[in-house]
Amino acid sequence: MNLPYQQSNPTPGSKKARNRLTPILLALLGLCLALILLHGPILTGVADFLIQTNDPLHKADVIFILNGDYDTRPFYAVKLYQQGLAPKVLIAQSENSPAVDLGVVENSTAISVQVMLHKGLPPEALTVLNKDTPVTSTFDEARSLRAYVEANQVKKVILVTSSFHTRRARWILEKELKGSGVELQVAGAPHSGFNDKNWWKTEDGLVFVNNEYIKLLFYWLNY
Predict the structure, then answer these.
(1) Could you tell me the CATH number of the domain that includes residue 104?
(2) 3-class SS at 143?
(3) Contacts for 47 with CB less than 8 Å, ≥ 6 apart
(4) Domain residues for 162?
(5) What phi, psi does 157 have (nearest 5°)?
(6) Is 47 contained in some domain?
(7) φ, ψ of residue 207 in degrees (nearest 5)
(8) How many domains does the chain have?
């Protein structure tokens, strides 16, 4: 026996559920479309948040270069020195890694020093701090600078670090130099191979920005 065909009608509850979901789905679709269209400006803003420099720079007593990125920072420090922005360049001695102790690679500070001397920085214009107590962090470097400026009556410092490291470095140095009366200027050395407009297109850029945000959060939570 064949039963008469009955058309199933959606229940009022299912209609209401669809009506509620529709604007949510449309909003998500719009958000995805906006992210696709605006990903460039958004990702540029992500990098720009990390950049906090002084522009333009003016004359100071010393240039203080942070360890690391020796393919960019020491080159930039010498450039500023040769522009007559300061008569002396300082760098703190970094601690040896196990590979350095084995003689397999050179200490990062030693490499930066060699770069600066090869680029024309006079040896008498270079001072390496903390030779007997090597530094292991940016905070250690900031403390070594604090001791130097107090002993030598330094009033104006140009800090050289990587462009994307400038926000964290400025925060650390200002925290450590608080009450010293030192005027701090921050100079961001351009990165090699990427900048704020294309960092997400290179592996080095992705790694640097990711690591910098992790370190920024770590320092804010711990210091």
Answers:
(1) 3.40.50.620
(2) helix
(3) 164, 195, 196, 199, 209
(4) 62-222
(5) -130, 135
(6) no
(7) -65, -45
(8) 1
The number of angstroms, rounded, from the C-alpha of 141 to the middle of its chain's C-alpha atoms is 16
User: Which DSSP letter does residue 175 get?
Assistant: H
**Dihedral sign for Cα atoms in the order 108, 109, 112, 113:** negative
Which DSSP string corresponds to 21-42?
HHHHHHHHHHHHHHHHHHHHHH
Residue 72: name the closest of 138, 162, 195, 157 by CA.
162
C-alpha 19/C-alpha 179 separation (Å) is: 61
| Sequence letter at residue 25 | L
Give the pLDDT of the chain (223 residues) as one tens digit per residue.
Answer: 555 545 555 555 555 555 555 666 656 665 555 545 546 788 899 999 999 998 899 999 999 999 999 999 999 999 999 999 999 999 999 999 999 999 999 999 999 999 999 999 999 999 999 999 999 999 999 999 999 999 999 999 999 999 999 999 999 999 999 999 999 999 999 998 999 999 989 999 999 999 999 999 998 888 7
Distance CA 213, CA 219 (A): 10
Sheet holding 183-189, edge to edge: 126-129, 89-92, 62-65, 156-162, 183-189
Own/partner pairs, 208-212, CB within 8 angstroms, 24+ separation: 208/162, 208/164, 209/46, 209/47, 209/50, 209/164, 212/50, 212/164, 212/165, 212/168
Tokens 């351009």 belong to: 190
